[in-house]
Amino acid sequence: MHIQSDVCIIGDGAIGKVAALGFAQAGLKVTLLSPLFASANKIPPPQPAGLEAWDVRVYAVNHVAHDLLSSVKVWDALDAARVAPVDSMVVNGDAAGELAFDAYGAHVGTLAWIVEDRNLNQALDAALKFASNVRTVQGRAIELKTDDNAANVQLENGDTLTAELVVGADGGQSWVRSQCSIDFDYRPYGQRAIVSNFACEKPHHGIAHQWFSVSEGIIALLPLPGKRVSLVWSAPDALADALSQESLMQVAMRLSALAAAELGTLTPLQPEMVKSFPLSLIRPHAITAPRVALIGDAAHVVHPLAGHGMNLGFADVAGLIKAVVDRGAHRDCGDARVLARYARSRKEDILLMQLATDGLARLFGTAFEPLRMVRNLGLNLVNKLPVLKRRLIGHALGSKNQ
């Protein structure tokens, strides 16, 4: 079978789905390739009787992502009862350093929204069912070839997908990127992210808490609806190994000792629900190739300490759609100038986030005493400079409040 479209998106995660909806809304014909291995792994976790468990994978969605999801009619389709606004954030160093942000100081209603992966994908899947311009195809891609007129994706079953533009939304180990022979820099952080959810004794008041520690890594507790929080613990490998041998109640006791003043005693929401994954920096040398654009983790993988990996991906989608929509009647979707415009529009944002997250991970990963003093002094200094704080908040929001 030969399937032809304007845009072929490879990868059916949230980033790929949003891109498909956005291109379809722009009037383009879209093919969304859902890899067979991904579909086979999409087995919903067991749910407690009479209760839908809280997903341990959550995203801190900023204003750019919110606006994009709203524009494709997905935001209002989310289960609002399972979305928590972040009204402020408190960052603590490993001594007396502290930095606080709040929505009032940023002149916005909220800093971000905490959204479960399942909630987001269910809304996206529902929207895709009504997107007449999107055709979802399941299969395994085995070859990508491009010429002056089109890109062709050969599937294992013999089918061919032809499009003016192929979009790689297939994650950090991107097959599309490898097919384009795009080199990349890779560096493991020697950490694993441990994620789970907890009930807290005290109300969190919409505050996200983050602690930096040389010995324990970076611990973030993000607000969920009600008296619940979501944990993202970027733990050094040795500590991650130790934590994996402990019960979740023991992990909760560790966290309670850290966050007792703010949240009181923590208890696991679902004792069996905990996940972990290794952390690394992946920096491709390009995010475009002839008739190909990379978005999301295929284009960049950053440390999760700022919670903006997914937001970078949503910004990629917005930037790519804008470049394609503004291409002019005489150019097709995969025109070299269109792709160059997309790459230029994303270069600064991606570079700044890579430098910021990598720099902070390195800075707080060293026990060198002079640096320890400087980094905590820096946190306190920024906390006392409203203009600089507003600029930092504006960049994190992805808005024009900079």
CATH domain class name: Alpha Beta
CATH superfamily: FAD/NAD(P)-binding domain
The chain-level structural class is alpha+beta
Mean pLDDT over all positions: 87
CATH architecture: 3-Layer(bba) Sandwich
Q: What name does CATH use for the topology? A: FAD/NAD(P)-binding domain
How many alpha or pi helices? 12
The helix content, as a percent range, equals 25-40%
Mass-distribution shape: globular
Low-confidence stretches: 37-51
Quaternary = single chain
Distance between the termini: 50 Å
| Count of distinct strands | 19
Radius of gyration: 21 Å
What proportion strand? 25-35%
Number of domains: 1
Largest sheet: 8 strands, mixed
Keywords:
alpha+beta, eight-stranded mixed β-sheet, 402 residues
Give your account of this protein's structure.
The chain has one domain (2-44, 53-363): FAD/NAD(P)-binding domain (3-Layer(bba) Sandwich), CATH 3.50.50.60. The chain is 36% helix and 30% strand. It is built from twelve helices and 19 strands. It has helices at residues 14-25, 36-41, 63-71, 103-106, 117-129, 175-179, 237-244, 248-263, 309-325, 336-363, 369-383, 386-397; strands spanning 2-10, 30-34, 58-61, 84-86, 88-92, 98-102, 112-116, 134-138, 141-146, 151-155, 160-168, 184-200, 207-213, 217-224, 228-236, 266-268, 275-284, 288-289, 292-294. Strands 1, 2, 8, 9, 10, 11, 18 and 19 form an eight-stranded mixed beta sheet that branches. Strands 5, 6, 12, 13, 14, 15, 16 and 17 form an eight-stranded mixed beta sheet that branches. Helix 9 runs antiparallel to helix 10. The termini are far apart.
